[in-house]
Amino acid sequence: MTARVLIVDDIPANLKLLDAKLTAEYFDVIQAPDGPTAIEMAQSEQPDIVLLDVMMPGMDGYEVCERLKQLPETHHIPIVMVTALDQQSDRVKGLESGADDFLTKPINDIALFARVKSLVRLKTLTDELRMRESTGQRIGGIDSTNNELPSDIGGRCLVVDDRERQRARLCEMLSEQHEVTVAESSADLMERAATDEFDLVLISLSLKEEDGLRLCSQMRSLDATRQTPILAMVEEGDMDKLVRALDMGVNDYLMRPVERNELMARCRTQLRRKRYQDQLKDNFQRSLEMAFTDSLTGLYNRRYMTNHLTTLVEEGAHSGKPLSLMLLDIDYFKAVNDTYGHGAGDEVLKEFGSRISDNVRGIDLACRLGGEEFVVVMPDTDADTAIAIAERLRSRVAERAFKTEVEQAIEVTVSIGLAGAIWPYDSAEALLERADQALYKAKRDGRNRVNTEAA
Predict the structure, then answer these.
(1) How many domains does the chain have?
(2) Catalytic residue list contains 179
(3) Catalytic residue among 372, 391, 411, 429, which?
(4) Is 428 part of a structural domain of the chain?
(5) Rounded distance, CA 389 to CA 361, Å?
(6) How many C-beta neighbours within 10 Å does residue 138 have?
(7) Does residue 87 fall inside a structural domain?
(8) For the segment 225-270, what is each residue's pLDDT rounded down to a tens digit?
(9) Claim to verify: residue 47 and residue 149 sit in the same structural domain
(10) In angstroms, what CA-CA distances link 380 with 321, 355, 418, 453?
């Protein structure tokens, strides 16, 4: 795996040494000699990861990290602090400033490269989600949302540790801010993790009865748990297990003995990243829904209906299953707008969409074609069934007046045209055209009726 790495250090010899090591591993390296330059380069160059020294004149690494995590262009870029500072308080301060890891010199090169690759893999996933969300915003026509990292909040944590005293202490520390659940065995872990939505799983890699690395591997191999963040707990000095854990997709790690503040800081980092990714996924899904649904009625729009109907027609040409189409038009809708105003007209359209949804089946697709015209696509539906559905819908519209903000309830009726697919040579366009002809005749014959002559 290659990546673009920004290294930040005020000592040229340190930059040169780290550059040489990373270049030998085929990383693309860019350098910054101080904090302000690092911030500018992170914004302009968009590196995949930042390796940041702490002790620098003017702006130290903690301040650089905090600023990068506050900027919308850079808050998603992982940061590893690489420093000679070795106190636990320094590590915690670095993690609380937003760093993803805090490595003390002299650094084990294998561990450094494993950590860089691990964080770059995680960023690649975030980048993909960011790109999808950006595309979704464009096709959905929604405003860009404020995608800052979510504020610190508690989460649901699942703990796997078969040493009772260590597990009790871990749960006691976590429970100050999080909801904690304990998995008693590997089977219990996989069942709980797959069926419950946990925000973070903490797994000891020094289990007595289980192989912690295998549990991590199993979680990463199943669809239900592939994206669940994992925080591994490693014995001090067990570099081999740590490197293997990072290589198989563990998100972060803690060296034993576990220190309370570092535990909370690392959990907070994982929870914030997960919520940011969840936010990107939600925004993408929302933009897709807006791209394919009518904003007023909540029904699918013409674009979605056309694609869906084309697919059903292609499948029906091979299977021979019946397919019916219902085209609906609100009678004298222009008079509603002219008499009561467009606000009342919009309320009628919304209520009309609700009545369609309430009176068609789960397999049917209800859409707003445009204006006061609607379509219901009815798969696996013969002519007799389609007529029954259409008549029921017509009567549901006419039997009860539409309530709006105007004092007087509005009487509304609907004309409906039906068409059935003719296999094997029918097309979506031809089916719509025949339904439109049937609708035209229903209107010509007096409205508030269902017509199937052209079907």
Answers:
(1) 3
(2) no
(3) 372
(4) yes
(5) 9
(6) 11
(7) yes
(8) 999 999 999 998 899 999 999 999 999 999 999 999 999 999 999 9
(9) no
(10) 6, 22, 15, 20
What percent of the chain is predicted at pLDDT more than 70?
A: 95
Token pair listed for 284: 């993408």
For residues 69 and 98, is the Cβ–Cβ distance under 8 A?
yes
Q: Where residue 344 falls among pLDDT bands split at 50, 70, 90? A: very high
Rounded distance between C-alpha atoms, residue 57 and residue 60, angstroms = 6
* Residue 57 CB coordination number (10 Å): 8
Cα(325)–Cα(418) distance, rounded to whole angstroms?
A: 6
pTM of the model: 0.74
Residue type, 205: L
Residue at 28: amino acid letter? D
Q: Of 60, 80, 107, at which residue does a domain stop?
A: 107
Contact 217, 246 (CB under 8 A): no
Ramachandran category for residue 301: left, alpha or beta (phi over 0 → left; psi -120 to 50 → alpha): beta
Beta bridge partners, 293, equal 300
The answer to whether 99 and 65 have CB atoms below 8 angstroms apart is yes
Name the least confident of 86-100, 189-203, 280-294.
280-294
Of 245, 263, 265, nearest in space to 254 by CA:
263
Q: Which of 58, 90, 107 is the last residue of a domain?
A: 107
Pairwise CA distance, residues 372 & 270, whole Å: 49
Q: Answer yes or no: is 391 within a domain.
A: yes
Residue 139 has a pLDDT of 66
